[in-house]
Write a structure and sequence with these properties.
- This protein is 21% helix and 28% strand.
- It is of the alpha/beta class.
- The chain folds into two domains: 4-264, Spore Coat Polysaccharide Biosynthesis Protein SpsA, Chain A (Alpha-Beta Complex); 282-365, UDP N-Acetylglucosamine Acyltransferase, domain 1 (3 Solenoid).
- The longest helix has 13 residues, at 198-210.
- The chain starts with a strand and ends in a 6-residue tail after the last strand.
Length: 371
């Protein structure tokens, strides 16, 4: 099969997401009122005609497992192929536990049998689960074949910054250098999306396993950059990686901008999410709802402005919610006042309470908190 096979990495990272990853890995962080972060990359793959996707997981996976289920929501529930969940270190001997995620090449070596026996396609796309983007992966594959590249790396036109993998390109788009931990912005920022052949992937995984190498960036892109033909695919549309509380809040608030929503949720490439059967949201005649995203099953009797409200949230009479992100089944009691607050699931704000964050430093409450 000359199409692509998708592999998504979803694992614990050292980031500034604090309470949002106490009970979940990055790919299952709720976003936009009814989505999880992994929905974007899964949908990108399905929209490109990819019918087989493996998700390599490590860490607090229960939330991700509950969300993905059999893959039916993305048309990936199949008798052969479809969605496959891959614990990164479940089949590696001598670890004595769940194992620490050191790098993508090591994680791939842990599922080498899957790579060799279950991938039916000629090409593989590797991607992270914590990226908000609506990307035409079929165009990436087309360019990959046309350029004869060994690995095509998707990157943006903006310069790479601290924490980014940065690519330096020549005039033809070939990657001549790969850098990270920059002191000042330069090059093109990578999006951690790579297309390569199945044959090359298996060869690279075997080589890295044999030499105790585990990092895709350091040991392949940098270490073999002179030997391999690395080529860039420049994506000029919207893309955002979530790795801090401030970043999560700002990227979420950008979803209130119709232009950003049009780029992320275009009808030609829809973003699919897990179905949740819930009644319609009720907005009381005396309530207020302005410039906000409200999911199904909510009861809004107070005032909601410039906010993102997930399924089952209750805002009682007299309560004021402004610039907030409230996860599933949060309750805001009568006369409570919230400004720039992020609340995880099942948080209760008591009657008359007042919480004020800042748009650059939002206040965050963990799952099940009572304030």
């Amino acid at each position: 099969m000359k199409g692509m096979h998708g592999i998504i990495f979803s694992y614990e990272k050292k980031t500034g997401l604090r309470e949002l990853i106490d009970h979940r890995i990055h790919g299952s962080i709720p976003i936009g009122g009814e989505y999880r972060m992994v929905d974007f990359m899964l949908s990108n793959m399905v929209n490109a005609g990819i019918s087989d996707v493996g998700i390599i997981m490590q860490g607090k996976c229960q939330s991700m497992l509950d969300h993905l289920g059999t893959g039916k929501s993305w048309d990936l529930s199949r008798k052969r192929g479809g969605l496959t969940l891959l614990p990164a270190f479940a089949y590696m001997e001598g670890r004595g536990g769940p194992g620490k995620f050191r790098g993508k090449m090591e994680a791939l070596s842990g599922v080498l049998n899957y790579l060799e026996e279950d991938i039916r396609q000629d090409y593989v796309v590797l991607a992270d689960s914590d990226l908000m983007v609506n990307l035409p992966l079929d165009d990436v594959l087309e360019q990959h074949i046309a350029t004869g590249a060994d690995i095509t790396c998707v990157c943006t036109a903006r310069a790479g910054e601290m924490g980014d993998t940065c690519f330096i390109l020549d005039e033809t788009g070939r990657i001549v250098d790969t850098m990270s931990d920059l002191q000042q912005p330069q090059g093109s920022a990578g999006l951690s999306i790579f297309v390569l052949s199945k044959e090359l992937l298996i060869r690279l995984v075997r080589h890295c396993a044999a030499h105790n190498l585990y990092s895709l960036r350091r040991d392949v892109l940098q270490g073999m950059g002179k030997e391999l033909h690395l080529h860039a695919y420049i994506w000029e549309g919207y893309a955002a990686r979530i790795n801090t509380i401030r970043g999560y809040y700002e990227r979420s608030m950008e979803l209130l901008d119709p232009q950003v929503r049009a780029q992320l949720f275009c009808p030609q490439r829809p973003i699919y999410a897990k179905e949740n059967d819930a009644g319609s949201t009720y907005i009381d005649p005396t309530g207020v709802c302005v410039n906000s995203l409200i999911a199904d099953g909510c009861d809004i009797q107070g005032s909601v402005r410039n906010s993102i409200i997930f399924r089952g949230v209750q805002v009682e009479k007299g309560a004021q919610v402004d610039g907030c992100i409230l996860f599933k089944n949060t309750v805001v009691k009568k006369d409570a006042v919230l400004r720039n607050v992020i609340a995880d699931k099942y948080v209760v704000f008591r009657e008359g309470c007042m919480l004020m964050g800042h748009e650059h430093y939002p206040m965050v409450l963990g799952r099940g908190s009572v304030v």
